[in-house]
Amino acid sequence: MRIQALVKRIIRQMLRDKRTLALLFFAPLIVLTLMYFFFNGNGNDPVIGVVGADERLAVLLEEREIQFERFEAADPQTVIEEELDGLLDVENSSLKLTLLNDDPSVARSILVQINQALLMQNAAAGGNALALETEYIYGSEDTEFFDVLSPVLIGFFVFFFVFLISGIGLLKERTSGTLERLMATPIRRWELVAAYLAGYGLFAIIQTVIVVSFSVLVLDVVLVGSIWHVILTNLLLALVALSLGTLLSSFASSEFQMVQFIPVVVIPQIFFAGIFPVDGMVDWLQGIGRIMPIYYAADALKSVMYKGQGLADISGDLLALGVFAIVFIGLNIVALKKHRKL
Amino acid sequence: MLFVSIEIDVKGVSKSYGKTKVLQGINLQIQPGQIYGLIGPSGSGKTTLVKLIVGIDSADEGQVEVFGKSMPNLELLQDIGYMAQADALYLELTGYENLAFFASLYPMKKTELTKRIAYAAELVKLTGELKKKVAAYSGGMKRRLSLAIALVHDPKILILDEPTVGIDPELRLSIWNELMHLKNEHQKTILITTHVMDEAEKCDIVAMVRSGALLKSGSPADLKAAYGVRQLEEVFLQAGREQP
Question: What is A240-290 written as a DSSP string?
Answer without folding.
Answer: HHHHHHHHHHTT-SSHHHHHTHIIIIIHHHHHTTTSS-GGGS-HHHHHHHT
